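re: ur msg from earlier - yeah i can do the DAU complex, just paste it... oh wait u already did. ok heres what im feeding in:
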Amino acid sequence: MKEFTKHILVTGGAGFIGSHVVRRLLINYPDYRVINFDRLTYAGNLQNLKDVDTAPNYVFVKGDITSQQDVNKVFSDYGITDVIHLAAESHVDRSISGPMDFVLANVVGTVQLLNVAREYWGDFQNNVFYHISTDEVYGSLGDQGLFEETTAYDPRSPYSASKASSDHFVRAYHHTYGLPIRISNCSNNYGSHQFPEKLIPLIINNIVQQKELPVYGDGKNIRDWLWVEDHAHAIDVIFHTGKNGETYNIGGLNEWTNIDLVRRLCTILDDKLNRPSGMNEQLIRFVTDRAGHDRRYAIDASKLTQELGWSPSIRFEEGLEKTVDWYLANTDWVKHITSGDYTKYYEQQYALRKS
Ligand code: NAD
Ligand code: DAU
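and the outut:
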């Protein structure tokens, strides 16, 4: 049997970003065994990895990070040497309607993993516990300035509060027990395989189906968008060359108001769907704002760029077009992932926002 040099537990590997991380590790590091550990919630989908799931270094284990039994078992069955932790409840709107799921998955689940890793690894020889987090822990910016690694935490949604809490636990395990860790906080990702409740795939799919396009509030909230494969690349770089105990911000200096982004998607799709110019924009509806809606996120990633040499690989215009093409070519994937209760759930939520 092949000897692997590392046995990396990737939690949440069946989700959007996790599947890109798993794919990158499988392809670039055949000497590593990649154990994708995922509960397969509504957001997790093994079809995301169907192009690589026969790789000899890939293993999938269905399990829940909140379960001590599941986590203990995967560590001992596969001799886990490192963790890249992405599993989480990730959608802000769902955290507003049901915060407890976020406390369980994001806080309790992270602490469960930390406990088992600490116990299993003992003297922490060459292990890494890498926690993937979000820029939302820093709160909301005014017109000027960028989030830096030293920006004080100010989470303002149940989602960001749960992620901030998990970040604090990861740092506490480093300071208290010496657990070797890294943390990264990334801005909004976009690209293939993102669950279509998030802004970009939601708008693409609604345009395709000629459904209304919900824009929250005045549409002037700003997000800083990063190509998901650039995030996976940054995770690879930080995992391999980041310093023990350090935090790295990840982002592409690519700020867009939501309304400009939605309009851009309308224009791209007028063209690709051969619709008259301006037709898709007529679907835009300004709807009730998200409660506590953060106004602006923007990331300063200069530490990562200067210390570890990472930089984004593609321009937003190109990435957006590739993303649109992927969704147009993968309508079966969309149908599959939104089957079950999702469509009904979405229609109910949308009706509430319009009323
Ligand atoms: P996602 O919702 O697409 O995927 C989350 C995955 O975690 C799913 O496969 C789900 O089945 C799994 N999961 C959830 N609860 C679990 C549990 N209890 N046990 C095991 N698996 C469980 O999320 P994503 O957008 O890919 O985000 C991944 C990570 O990156 C999250 O930690 C998120 O906070 C962080 N992040 C996301 C973004 C973004 O723009 N999407 C930006 C920065 C950071
Ligand atoms: O910043 C990183 C975060 O980005 C991640 O940590 C989260 O996991 C991820 O979901 C994302 O959070 P956002 O709340 O920024 O993403 P979302 O796609 O839900 O919304 C993007 C913006 O678009 C936000 O300002 C709300 C707005 N929006 C969203 C939806 C779903 C709309 O106007 N209409 C919509 O229908």
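cool cool. Residues 99-121 form the longest helix (23 residues). ping me if u need the other ligands too
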